[in-house]
Amino acid sequence: MAKVKVHVFLKPGVLDVQGKAVEGALNGLGWAGVKEVRVGKLIEFDFDGADPAGEAKKMCDTLLANTVIESYRIEVA
Fold it and tell me: Whole-model pTM above 0.90?
């Protein structure tokens, strides 16, 4: 059984509206040094099968990430 973590984030150059909102809120709360906030998502699951990294890549390309605007990184433990 493998523990798989998939980190999904917007590609550079894609406007991150949620990141801008978080940045504005943090600045408004006094953290003026916070800049270029990017918000992503983490998907974790257990995988019972051969080649968890390869299968996770297929999952990302099929469902978990919009590869037109998002990149991803896979961790397997």
Answer: no
